[in-house]
Design a protein that fits this description.
88 residues, alpha+beta, 3-stranded antiparallel β-sheet, 4 helices, 45% helix, globular
Amino acid sequence: MGIVKRENYIQIQGFMLTDLHLSGNDLLIYAIIYGFSQTGEGVFDGSREYLAEWCNASLSSIKRSLKALQEKGLIKQVFHSKDNLTVK
């Protein structure tokens, strides 16, 4: 059984396409992080493995997408441990 459950979902909003011009894994990862960031502390506190499962992608692909999103100024890594990633 994977990390992503049948009842989990993500929401892709129009501005992510029209304003941010995101696509592929970058779009999916941003949508996941954005969704988690709307509650509580405004951060996504999850694993790269979780993102990889959502994107059906390798961990190296996830790392590249996270780096690209950071370089575009769309997310900011605020804490990193071996297993978890926290981004704004």
